Structure formats: C-alpha cells, structure tokens
Amino acid sequence: MLLRDAQGQPIAIRREDYAAPAYWIDTVDLTFDLDPAKTRVLNRMQMRRNPEAPVQPLRLDGDELNLARVLVNGQGASFRMEGDQLVIDGLPDSFELEIFTTCCPIKNTKLMGLFVSEDTFFTQCEAEGFRRITYFLDRPDVMASYTVTLRAAKAAYPVLLSNGNLVEQGELPEGRHFAKWVDPFKKPSYLFALVAGKLVAREQRIKARSGKEHLLQVYVRAGDLDKTEHAMNSLINSVLWDEARFGLPLDLDRFMIVATSDFNMGAMENKGLNIFNTKYVLANQATATDADYSNIESVVGHEYFHNWSGDRVTCRDWFQLSLKEGLTVFRDQEFSQDLCADASARAVKRIEDVRVLRTAQFPEDAGPMAHPVRPDSYIEISNFYTVTIYEKGAEVVRMMQTLVGRKGFEKGITLYFERHDGQAVTCDDFAQAIADANPESELARLLPQFKRWYSQAGTPRLAAHGVYDAQNRSYTLSVVQSCPPTPGQPTKEPFVIPLNIGLLDASGRELPMQLEGEGDVTRGTRTLVLSRAGEQITFVGLDAEPVPSILRGFSAPVILDFEYTDAQLLTLLANDPDPFNRWEAGQRLGLRAALQGIAALATDTTPVLNDAYIDAMRSVLRNPQLDAAFKELVLTLPSETYIAEQLDVVDPQRVHLVREAMRAQLATALFADWQWAYEENHDTGAYSPDPTSSGRRALAGMALNFLCLAARSSGDVVWPGKTLQRFKDAGNMTDRFNALNALVASGHSLAAQALARFHAIFKDEALVIDKWFSLQAGAPDRGGDILPLVKQLMKHPDFSLKNPNRARSVIFSYCSANPGAFHRPDAAGYVFWSERVIELDAINPQVAARLARALDRWSKLAEPYRSAAREAIARVAAKPDLSKDTHEVVTRALAGN
After folding, report:
1. Which SS3 state, helix, strand or coil, does residue 607 take?
2. What are the start-end ranges of the H helices in 423-565?
3. Is 303 one of the catalytic residues?
4. Is residue 606 predicted with pLDDT exceeding 80?
5. What is the rounded CA–CA span in Å between residue 658 and residue 646?
6. pLDDT of residue 169
7. pLDDT recorded at residue 92
8. Are 604 and 664 in contact (CB under 8 A)?
9. How do residues 25-43 score in pLDDT, each as one tens digit?
10. How many CB atoms lie within 10 A of CB 159?
C-alpha cells in the first residue's frame, strides 16, 4: 500500500517503525490457470494470528489484481478495500483463507509479478512483486511452505516449472496439462517463481560429498542451447565451491536456471528456480566476450550462493537487504578469486571489484541518494538495490574477514547458519555470529563501533602523514579519519578501519616492520586496526625514510589522502609487492596529471603527461614479469567519472578534453610499444576464457585502440587497415569486438563499414546487437556528434524501449556512461534525458528510476550545466502521475543542491 500525506506525496517507510506481522501464514497452496490475457490464480492459505502482536484486522497487499472471491474456512466473508490492501475483520485465531483473483500478464510492462516475454510466462517477485499475483502478506519475514499447481495449454506451454520438487504431472482435457511442485523449505513470497513456455534444457547430474545425487538444469529457448555450457560449468563450480569453502551443500533434488530476455535485473535467486537475464547465461566464443564469460561465472555463482545466504536465512525486513546481498556479493567475489589459478589473476579480480566501488559507489555515497548499508527509510524499496547495499555491503563483510581471519570467518558463517537456518534475521544477527565465533578477535572487541558501517552513510576519508626521525631511526604515521555529512546524517562517529600497510625502501625493497614497544619484527603486510578519530603509529629500526604502502589490497572502503611525491609513486608502481597498491600508484599519477591539466586549462594539443609517467607506463608494458591482464589495468587511465569526483566544481567538457588528450599522448608516445604489445599478445591460440588468455586479448585490444588513435593524428592507414582485417578474421567475439571498438573509439572512417558488417552478421543475436548499440552510444564525443546518433539509434527497427537490455544499451550508455557526450553546453543531453525518464516511467518505473540517477551529481557541475541539469530534473519531478520509484529519486536529487 502506497501511503501518501495530505498533499498527496508518498510517505517514507521507516526502519524504526518495524513491527512483526499480525498474522502468520503456515502453508500456501496456489493453483494457476495460465493465460496471457487472463490468468486465474486460486490461493489457499492456512493462517494463524500472531499472539505477540496486538489484535487487528488482516491486511493483505495487492496491486493491479481483479478480485473475484474471498472465503474464510470455506464460507463467504465480508471484506473491504483500503487503497490496494484487502482488509478482513473479525477472524478466528487460525483459519483457512481462500482468495481467487485474475491478472493480465501480457500487459505487464513493469516486469514485476507475473509477465509474458516472447510467449513464455515468467515471474519476478523481489521485492514486492508477489502482490501483483495474489493478495498476500508480501513481506520477507512471513515464511511459508508452498505447493504450486500450474495448468496451461500443452502445445503452447509444454514446460511448467516452479520452486522445489516436481511431485506430479499429467494430462488435462482440451489439450491442457498440469504440473505440481512442492518446495520442502519455507520461504518468503519474494522467492516464489514460476515459468511456463517452450524451453529446452541442458542437464547435468552431480554427486555431492554426501553421495547424494542432484539434477542441474539450464533452460533456454531451443536456438540457444549451444550457449549454455559455460553457465552449467559455472553452476557446477559454484555448488562444489560452496560445499568446500563453507560446508554449505545443495539442499534440493534439482536446481534450475531459466533465461529470459526481458528482465529488470541481472538475475533472481528464487529457491531452486533461478530466473536470469539472458545476458548472464548465454555464451559461446562467437557471440560472447571474455567479460561476458567472467560476468556469467560471477552472477551464476551469486544467485546459487543465495540458496543459503538469502533463501535458507533471509532478511527480516527490506532495510536488512545487505544481509543477503552484501554477504552474497562477497561470496561471489571470493568464488571468482578462488577459481583463479595464481595470485596475479586474484589481484586483477580484486582491482576490478574496487574500480566498480570507487567509480559507482563512492559517488553514490557523496550524492543525494546516499544511504547507509542498512537504510533508515525508503519510499520505494526498488531504489535501494544499489552499489551501497551490494558492493559496499560486500566490503563490510570483507573487513569482518580481515579482522577475524579466513578460518575465523568460516567458523562465523557456520555459526550464523546453525543459529538462524529457516529464519528471517537482521544485519546485527550476522555480525554477532561472526564475532561470537571469534571471541578473541578485534571484531568482537569493537563490535558495537564496527556496526557503524551499517548505520552511517558516506565514504570515510583517511588523512595520513608520515614523519621520519633520523636520530631515532623511526617513522611515525599519523592518521586522522573523517566522514562528510550525508542526507539526514550531519555528523559521524569514528569507524573501525582495518588498514593494511607495508614499508619499502627507496629502491623498492620491502622493509621489516617493528612497532614501537613491540619486540617482534614482521615482514610483508601488517594489519593495523584504527578506531579513533586520530591515531599515530610509530615504526622503529629504520635506517632511512621508507615509502609507505598504505591500504594494501584496499583493506577498507575509504578514501586515502596521503601526499605522495611523484618519486614515491613511481617507486610503488615499479616495485610494490602488493598488486593493488602497485596499480593504485599508477592511478594516482594519472589522476594527478589530469587534475593539473584541468586546472591549467589544457587544450587537446597540450601535453598532459610528463616523461617520467610515459617512461613508467612503457616499463609496465614491457615488463616480462607482469601478466597482460594486470598491464591492461595499469595502463587504463582513470575514468572521466572518477576524475570528476575529485573536483569540487566539474566542467564535464574540460574533463573530457583533458582525458582525451592524455589518451592521444599515450597513443603517440608509446606507438612502438603498442605495436610490440599487439604482436606479442594478439595470438592466443584456441579460444579459452581463462584469465591468462583473457588478459592477453585485453592487452592486444588496448594496443589496437591506441594504434588506431595514433593513426587519427598521423594519418597512418596501416594500423586501421590491420584492425579492420582483424575484425573480419577474428575467431572469437572478444577479438572481433576489440577491433570494432578500436575503429569506433578512434573515430576512423573505416568504423562505418565495420559496424554495418557486424550488424549483418549478428542481426539475429539480441545480446550481440545490444553491444552494437552500446558501443555507438558510448563512443567518445567529437563536436557533439553522439546525441544525434543516439536519436537515430532509437529509430532503428531493432530498438525497443520496452526491453530493459535494449533501453540500457542505448539510453543508459549515453546518459549514464558517456559524460563527455551527455553534458552538452546546449543542455540537449539533459532534455533528452528528461524525455526518456518520463517515457520509461509510464512503461517500467524501475528502469526509469535507474535512468533518473544519471543526474545524481548535478549540484557539482559548473555553469551553465548546473542550472540546465536542475531544470531538467525539476521538469521530471513536476509530472503529476510520476511513479513513486522515479519520484523518490528526483525529489531527493532536487533536495541535495
């Protein structure tokens, strides 16, 4: 039920107002007669009053349902409607409630509840979609046992799936058939799922450590079966890893994944019946890139790991969303790292995860939608499926592991599931279990303070300063922590911050570390635990001033302010044994150059990068000891978004100009080195998405990109010609797409024929055409040429606004991922954004609200961008019938000026 105030504005739901439900549902028996235009749903529930709650009417949630019948214990019952809620008074302490409703899945463009995609029925019930299927206590702390009977025309819907185990199936009159499913585990309504349609499955039987056999199935459309091998292998690896790492076995006879092309999210962990966006299932070497393969492995793992961290133990209320999502992101990150064969590949994965956090979550923490990992209020819960809940939540869990150790964390996970299996619990319950399993740990000692990571929004800053005392042969590191104000939280208390640190000498050798007052000398990385606003740490026994390697492995989600000299950063870049800080040194040098170039009003012909930086990048590129994947990360400049976040006032065009100048300078200054890198890495043999081969393809693709960019200024025709030939001859999508990207990103005239050829080859592959759209909408802007192109792409016969993947591929690629093209001096980008947000809001409010976030940071913009952006946001906010999803985003944006 959407609550509104006297002015008709939506009212926020607050965590402090949580109350246990007045009724419990023990069993749910659902019967579906599936029809696209009119699906009939019979819902029989065994219910009882909660004796610990005040006596009150039963209030069931519903949304866009046609109610036909309400029976209590088989008899007609009086009821009333209050908004979208069905209210029944005078109920006995226990009773059977029967509700009969109909709905229209074919018209469900919101893709929440029961909907139809390409003549197949799917559901999406998280967070509040089940109320669009039947009237229910649609909240995560109501867990019930489900029996589901599906009935449909057999010719049109030969496959009928739901949660749990198939217990009965058979024929019905008039060409219809049925399937009955029973889920042996209690679950909340958001984990309910059904699928019905013409599908085929890849099947694999596996045997668990216990000796029990399980059936794994990946369902897709008939023409896509050849693209499911990697998803199946990822699922098998996930099952094996979770049992080996955490002792958590698969608990069902069968586990199913089903792919759909119309999906708001990436995937959904419905118990035993995961529903996936095709983007995270379908892959073969002709149609999927190395990044696709990696994402599929990660997302399949993520959804499978929810089987325990989300399904067996779920969240008490939606404010606890990170209980399942933060923990499960951490688990899928650990899974992907554990599958890496060597330390370098693990480091690359860690750097990629941190890059997402810093380019997406740090801005969120600094913007109008900033919220704690455990939010205090929301208007629309769908708006809080955010990088804060997921990625920052994962970093909070990672800090717990750092504080208790890997084995200690595994003990804590075991205790957590022993205590809470089958329950709906809170973030506090999880943190308490990890601490209780490790009573001597720093986490246990500092637990109340550590939990500020759940309650305080914002990114903490560490201001660090080092002083060397030659007479006493000591080095004192002073660290002051702070956290800026965020909406509703003007002041912050100190956090518990695990700070990993090492010391190097001027030549780059790791130094032994001895803290003042300690007798032991340690080598390698040391974890310091900060808990006060200001602290000093003194190292002794040092013959010269060290180069500190601070925040190794990105041990906490903080911003580190330390005045490194260029010489110190070059030492770290060349020698730090910690791969993260080695990469970070390169990023700091690149960022420093960018900020100096922006401040100096650099033009596109002004050299931004000094010789020392160019030489350092050449050394990385030529270093035979470094993996190609790591080289590609180091040589990738900080993004325009990340650069902009370091500025108080942002001129997006100046940021774009300077970064493009940096790219052009790297292209020309390292031209011979890029040629060498391409020749060394372009041939990876028979295709395999393993980290080593993927890294070599990534570096070869980067080399092509820079070689084509250099050709733009030199007039060279050789490398663009070679790139076009590479595009034509490529034996896998990664090499083909890297070549296409090199031509498009450099603005070369050969790009047009390559784009046309690409579309002709892959016109029937929806996910590949998404890449085709996205590449063009996200291309570097030259003279304002991208917005007219985006408008043309929206008129392309393959474009559909109703398909979230396709909408994201064009509109989001432009508005959210191409700042140099989006932030136009004439404000046309903002006008386009406002029109698309309003247009999408009428079709799919969840997708519209995500797009609305593209202007979260409008108040940092320089004029004339700032006023024009505010005007565009206000235009959206003024629309009378705006969804609560989009309304919450734009009103918070306007309040954050």
Report:
1. coil
2. 427-436, 442-445, 447-450, 452-455
3. yes
4. no
5. 14
6. 98
7. 98
8. yes
9. 999 999 999 999 999 999 9
10. 18
